[in-house]
Amino acid sequence: MEKRITTPLTAEKVKDLKAGDAVLLSGVIYTSRDAGHKRLVESLNKGEDLPVDLRDQIIYYVGPSPEKPGQPIGSAGPTTSYRMDPYTPQLLDYGMKGMIGKGLRSPEVIDAIKRNTAVYFAAIGGAAALMGKAVKKAEIVTYEDLGAEAFRRLEVVDLPVVVVIDSEGNNLYNIGQQAYLDSLK
């Protein structure tokens, strides 16, 4: 059963999500990768305002390809999440509620997810064109000099994601691996 979620992503919405849930996400999300995350955290460390208030927001780890004529964005597949791990706990402590990417997260990120009632979603790797079709509007907010890694505001409709790590720390990667190993017995 798919769940439908519309942003902003509040703690109440997060609490209803469990590892393994398929979600169709709609509303506003933001994009950033490691270079953008570094700048966000540097701003927080200097006591500066962020270019966008990330409280109750989601960052999608993506560096989209250029858009084709008449399209808001090109292919928009997820990038590997661990590169954001050094910055993610601080952004979650600030109030960010969700991330979309692919791959494993560090114990520090998982602790911050639990501490802040947040969630980590996985997007479909290898389906960048499909992911891009869920984007209805895209605009660069800041860090334009980073090119594909610029900080963007996206409006999405039914972006398909899966809950990988829920707010209790349940991790689909571990659960799925254990279920597979148990099936071999």
From TrEMBL:
A Pfam family the protein falls into: Fumerase_C
Domain Fe-S hydro-lyase tartrate dehydratase beta-type catalytic: 6-174
Superkingdom of the organism of origin: Bacteria
Keywords associated with the record: Lyase
Family: Belongs to the class-I fumarase family.
PANTHER family: L(+)-TARTRATE DEHYDRATASE SUBUNIT BETA (PTHR43351), L(+)-TARTRATE DEHYDRATASE SUBUNIT BETA-RELATED (PTHR43351:SF2)
Name of the featured protein: Fe-S-containing hydro-lyase
Annotated source species: Clostridium malenominatum
High-level lineage: Bacteria, Bacillati, Bacillota, Clostridia, Eubacteriales
